[in-house]
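Exam revision sheet. Question 4 asks you to relate a sequence to its structure. Input first:
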Amino acid sequence: MCGIAGIFSARENRSIAELMTDFVRHRGPDDAGVEDIVSHDGRTAGTFGHRRLAILDLSAKGHQPMFSHDRNLCITFNGEIYNFMDLRREMEQSGVKFTSGSDTEVILAGWKREGPRFLHSLRGMFALALWDRDAGTGYLVRDTFGIKPLYLARCNGDVLFASEVRALLATGCIPRKLSRDGLASYLSTGSVAEPFTIIEGITSIPAGCVVEIVARDGSLSVQAPQPFAEPSAADDGDDHPGGSHVGRIRDALRESVGYHLVSDVPVAVFLSGGIDSSAVAGLASEISARPLEGFTVVFEEADFSEAAAARLAAHRFGMNHHEVMLSGQDLLEALPDVFESMDQPSLDGLNTFVVSRAVRSFGLKVVLSGLGGDELFGGYPSFLRAQQIAPLWKLPRAMRELGSAFLSPFDDARAQRVGGMLGDETASLAAYRASRTLFDDRFVSRLMADDSPPGRPAPEAPAWDEDGMNTPQRVSHYELTGYMRNTLLRDSDVFSMAHALELRVPMVDVQVAKVAHRAAREMRLKRGTIKPLLVEAVRDLLPPENISRPKMGFTLPFDRWMRKELFSEVDLAMNQTAAERVGIDYSDARDIWKGFQTRKSGVSWSRPWALYTLMRWAEQNNVVYEQSNATALSALQDLYL
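Answer key, structure tokens:
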């Protein structure tokens, strides 16, 4: 796990790569490297940078950027390849020699043999830049699910990349302007959906894609992203005949957790007390040769705290359990550090910042999380909601559109939400949007005082035949490629790496996703049931009390804290100057804040907190919004030429 940065350029630009590499030093305090890359004729082709958090092969042999033995390939790599030893053994049998114990060298050897096709063999999380000297081509790659981030920008004909948006901003090459479409996306959901970012001129490499940078005749062309994998790997084939779905889920999870425990340093676990983190902790405890360290964020507000459930699980698994107490005052005092670490504004992720800081204070570098279980096994309300409303989509489209038109104008959040749902193509998409929409399109336009609503990415539709999928499978796909990718994974990466902590997500695994996708064909949810297939797969591991208790989403007590300890902070930050800086109508922003204070229907804590976060982040990073007719969509078209 590391930070990477660099530049593809036909001229000497090493200083820019060094600056970006230094900016991401918090992601990798153990080692640093900057290497020039050259074309086959010896001309400058750019510079790669790397900051290392040493997890595998702690020796100097794992130093990056790393060259292939013939120096034709150069790579700077962020992530972990969990099946690298399997791949290495297979290549050694065919005569390939290795000089280190790192997974990075395995990627180089596999790429030398197969080129980009080798990506299909990788099981893990990764973002990488690779230069092929003979081909005169660079590659930027992100893993299937988008666990690791990678951002791209152009400046004066050069191509810049980095693990963080702010590293690109730090070069001074990209104006500190909010993206019109990135802003609309943030207001819509509380995070910016890729490929957009919050900054005009910076784009996110899409998950599961390869971007080629071709050097020819002294100039660089950036090719459009090409997918190499599907996020939920929708493979309906059955390569485990004779077994039950429950048994396959257990086997796939155990195998994945085993892979994710591969490390040359100790591994800890985030233990919330819920089904997902408890399943990961239980399986890890079975496999690990030594007791694991478990960490739980707890609150004085008992109805938000999962302390009791976490204690039961930790005791059952024989873990060394640590409770991290968080109060409203603690969070208030941590906010300057939070915004110093936040790469893009986000509604979520503060819990990860707090618990990551605690884990790192124990000297640990690696932690496992249960993230992904809700998306794969039906843990969110969107799954049950989609199942319940599906009969409405048997009505003629005209009737649904009539209902949508009737309800949408009402000044009531619930009526607007139902109206918006009825206008969607499928029940699965409607249920997903109803769960994840912060402000609807009409209100986003109103907030931005923009008569022509900016474009923003819709939830990603499955690339395969959607008619062959049932409702749970479709909802799972939207949750995986929407909320999980653009919010949970991004925040988990940013806030864990702020403390140089590698966060691993065993449930976000290609093989686990395949098994879960197949099993979802038989999943039928009932009110009060929680992830039935996953529960059955790990029932013998978990304390019975934890299985039978109601589901608790891991949410900080924002509603209470924003009325007490955080009130003055939010109230002062949401001023007219701050609103105008980010292009938000001040009167509407204040109405939302006052609506929360008076407990107006439909105005939960998330709406004012999202606006506060946007304003604080923009001030922290000296970013402003300038009204423009240009959109991020047109900027993306200009980028890939």
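Marking note for examiners. The longest strand covers residues 44-52.
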